[in-house]
Write a structure and sequence with these properties.
Immunoglobulin-like; 9-stranded antiparallel β-sheet; 8-stranded antiparallel β-sheet; elongated
């Protein structure tokens, strides 16, 4: 007995398909066995991207305008393949065609936003007699390096010095990578007269904040292939939507 016969008869899988019906607003015969997106006016379109937002399903039958058509959003369905797919592959739908293609978990999933944290430190500058030096933000010389696989390497990241008050200054920079050891050194000189910077050296490991996935990076995995096939084959799939 064929796989389709077993499935339709409930031998291999419980035959519990979930469908919804809408009145056809046009001739969508070219969309049969393809994923469609339902518009607010109940019109159908081929999805332009496998994103989260929208109502999707596979058009099951060909009906003229004004007749009831069936759209399957969970269960077993035939689907048109956009490429070579093996039984068991996770699948999503291809842009603009309604066909299905393999979902590649290493490149096709969502992306979490990563923001490298800015480094901020406070230094204190005095003259040789211990008096604070004010108004001297432009008189600092900074050296910023990072551990590049055991070699201290100069960084191109900009270091900014701004005055707070009473001889205190903010020193800020944003590392251009995560997890490295960074070294920041500062000296002060005005008119050839040096100031005393305390502290004058910093060591720190760059860190980052990880947010939730950006909405544009969410991918709708529509299910799993039950049969192997190649481009333009119509094969059985398990429709089981998940967001990655």
């Amino acid at each position: 007995m064929s796989l389709e016969s077993q499935i339709r008869g409930g031998w291999s899988f419980p035959n519990r398909n979930l469908d919804f019906t809408i009145e056809a607003t046009a001739d969508y015969s070219a969309y049969v066995n393809k994923f469609v997106k339902v518009g607010s006016d109940y019109s159908l379109s081929l999805p332009s991207a496998p994103l989260l937002v929208g109502i999707y399903g596979i058009l099951q039958d060909m009906q003229p305008a004004g007749q009831i058509q069936i759209i399957r959003y969970s269960g077993i369905s035939k689907a048109v393949y956009a490429e070579t797919i093996s039984a068991g592959d996770l699948i999503t739908f291809a842009d603009g065609t309604g066909k299905v293609q393999r979902f590649l978990s290493d490149t096709g999933g969502h992306v979490h936003e990563t923001v490298i944290e800015q480094v901020r430190r406070v230094v204190y500058v005095t003259n040789n007699f211990g008096a604070p030096i004010t108004g001297g933000a432009a008189n600092f010389t900074t050296t910023l390096e990072y551990d590049n696989s055991g070699t201290l390497t100069a960084s191109g990241s900009a270091v900014t010095v701004t005055e707070i008050s009473g001889g205190r200054y903010w020193v800020t920079f944003t590392p251009d990578d995560i997890g490295s050891l960074w070294l920041l050194s500062l000296t002060y000189s005005s008119g050839g007269i040096p100031g005393i910077v305390t502290p004058s050296d910093f060591q720190m490991v760059s860190t980052a904040q990880h947010g939730g996935p950006a909405i544009y990076s969410n991918v709708l995995v529509v299910g799993q292939a039950l049969e192997s096939g190649v481009l333009n084959d119509t094969k059985l799939i398990l429709v089981r939507p998940q967001v990655y």
